Amino acid sequence: MTGLTLKDIRKSYGSVDVLHGIDLEIKEGEFVVFVGPSGCGKSTLLRMIAGLENITGGDMYIDGQLVNDVPPSKRGIAMVFQSYALYPHMTVYDNMAFGMKIAGESKQEIDRRVRAAADSLQLGKYLDRLPKALSGGQRQRVAIGRAICRNPKVFLFDEPLSNLDAALRVATRIEIARLSEQMAGTTMIYVTHDQVEAMTLADRIVVLSAGNIEQVGAPLELYERPANLFVAKFIGSPAMNVIPSTITEAGNTTTVTLTGGKSVTLDIATAASEKGKTASFGVRPEDLRVAGAGDDYLFEGEVSIVEALGEVTLLYIEGLVPGEPIIVKLPGIYDIKKGQKMHFSADRSKLHLFDAEGRTYRK
Ligand SMILES: Nc1ncnc2c1ncn2[C@@H]1O[C@H](COP(=O)(O)OP(=O)(O)OP(=O)(O)O)[C@@H](O)[C@H]1O
């Protein structure tokens, strides 16, 4: 039963600094997901936890033990890669048994663990096949099964679903969620680009950008209370609308004037010294609704694009910042035409405000 502690972890390749001092506590049994834009350093951090990359600075502890110089095979971790990395000439059974054979486990113990892992991943009927006779999803399940057989204390996943098509991604994602419930005491760390994977699998998400942690929190905490503009725009799809604005009244509530629009009062407290400062006003596409005639509204504009997806309708509204339409996401199907003029409103509690450095004013 194992937790991890990362203290001021740094990574440089020559003169290029990739990670700038990562501090993170991961509790035993926790499912933690690293997300962030391409190149932010999430795979590097995962590979450092695995021991596949050396640590330039800082200390890393697994289960209370300093592991900076401990080789991968002695860390009690198992890693599942995007590329499956199966041995092509070995059957599914032998692929799953290989690590245990090397470790000198008994035949009976190997058989017991392989069959238990195959059962939990519904691979029982494929044990005699070679990897080439399996679908991508099945191969990835074999790679996961092989990792389970090693009885890891920490399970690492590096974008395990990114080679799969959409339907298989969903099925395998659900498989991983089930697995993490079955292996409740096993710590899992998972790197992905995919927001749905992050939101559905994680106990906590770590948002990284350019080698730094932007925010760590439960999925809905990040969605509802982003600490800064980066997280606000990164979590949620389509991204949060952000409108440049100026603070005209500060106090227990804050009034801002939106660029190209009207004044809006938010239930967010700001210090008197904030009055007159520029700020970024944010509202998520799904938090906007059509304002009825005579209702108070947040902004008005003209529909430039309608995307009817069946389940939702996306509207692109021009009228505030030229060339930067506001996106509105309405549930279901609407008969709305391009060129139509419309008014939109939102609950005050759903409005966000960030200072000139991008930090949230909502505490
Ligand atoms: N061996 C290396 N030598 C030099 N730079 C490297 C090396 N490996 C990674 N980098 C750089 O480190 C940064 C972080 O890479 P990393 O693969 O961790 O990013 P990532 O967030 O996982 O990206 P992606 O989502 O695209 O996989 C990138 O800018 C990358 O170019």
UniProtKB/TrEMBL annotation:
Keyword tags: ATP-binding, Cell inner membrane, Cell membrane, Membrane, Nucleotide-binding, Transport
PROSITE patterns: ABC_TRANSPORTER_1, ABC_TRANSPORTER_2
Sequence similarity: Belongs to the ABC transporter superfamily.
Lineage: Bacteria, Pseudomonadati, Pseudomonadota, Alphaproteobacteria, Hyphomicrobiales
GO MF annotations in UniProt: ABC-type maltose transporter activity; ATP binding; ATP hydrolysis activity
Protein name according to UniProt: Alpha-glucoside ABC transporter, ATP-binding protein
Any Gene Ontology CC annotation: maltose transport complex
Compartments where located: Cell inner membrane
Membrane disposition: Peripheral membrane protein
Domain ABC transporter intervals: 4-235
